[in-house]
Amino acid sequence: MYKILIIEDEAPARKKLQRYIAQACNSFKIVKEIETVSDLKVLLSKTQDFDLIFSDIELRDGNVFEVYKDVILHCPIIFATAYNEFFINAFEANGIAYLLKPYSFEQFSNAWNKFIRLKGDSAPNYNELIGTINNFIKEGQENNVEYKDQFAIKSAKGIYFLKVDSIVCFQADQGIIFAFDETNKRHTMPQKVFNEIELLLDPKKFFKINRSEIVHRKFIDKLERYNKNILSVFLNSDRKILKTSQNKTSDFNSWLGI
To answer: Where does the Response regulatory domain lie (predicted)?
Structure first.
């Protein structure tokens, strides 16, 4: 029986993992489900009695690599995330597969079968792991990703089209996603999962500054220090003021080239 730890802060994603695991394996036990970085840190300080970890990366209180960099892990990890920039971090943290949300059962099954193969080996096949990571990165660089240039928005009168270039920022609030345009008008987006919005946007133009807000580079007017690790972001001639999360500030500065 395989003992499995799930690290995921979104209930639908946890249910999907559970369903896929049950389809792929007849004998397993989910020993724990973790939703925060702080809980993960506590758990790994007490036990690593797992055969496999399924791990998201960005949780509600930070990034899991804050924990993984400080512990010696004794089991492999299959990462399941909406972020495509952590391949190397994943490999360094015992990652054997990288599932990019939304992933299919076929993709999950390939990752699971790799775990089974490695579990049967006397030693991990690191050449295979390195090749997998390198190929995944190469494929991502070579794919010509088409990002949205407009969104179809439903209204009481019908459907209208919101141009992406006119969107100042996106905000998620109690399960509803809003886009704010340059006139500060609010538009209700058809997407229900915030990470889906991020995947549809050009990462050179848009940046997710915290768990529920994405900003458009061209509408950033100025930044001010809110506290030691958080920035106030002034958008659209100061009509909107948002704040970075602590774990996003450094990456945000790098994205801006400052």
So the answer is: 3-116
Per-residue pLDDT tens, the chain, 258 aa: give them.
999 999 999 888 999 999 999 999 989 999 999 999 999 999 999 999 999 999 999 998 889 999 998 888 889 999 998 887 788 788 888 899 999 888 889 999 999 998 998 877 544 454 555 555 555 555 444 444 568 899 999 888 889 999 999 999 999 988 899 999 999 999 999 887 787 788 888 888 999 999 899 999 999 999 999 988 899 999 998 889 999 998 889 889 988 988
* Token digits of residue 129: 């792991």
- Match domain 2-142 to its CATH number in 1.10.3720.10, 3.30.1020.10, 3.30.565.10, 3.40.50.2300: 3.40.50.2300
Task: Write b or e for each residue in 6-26: b if 16 or more Cβ atoms lie within 10 A of its Cβ, otherwise e.
Answer: bbbbbeebbebbbebbeebee
- Residue pair 90/132 in contact by the 8 Å Cβ criterion: no
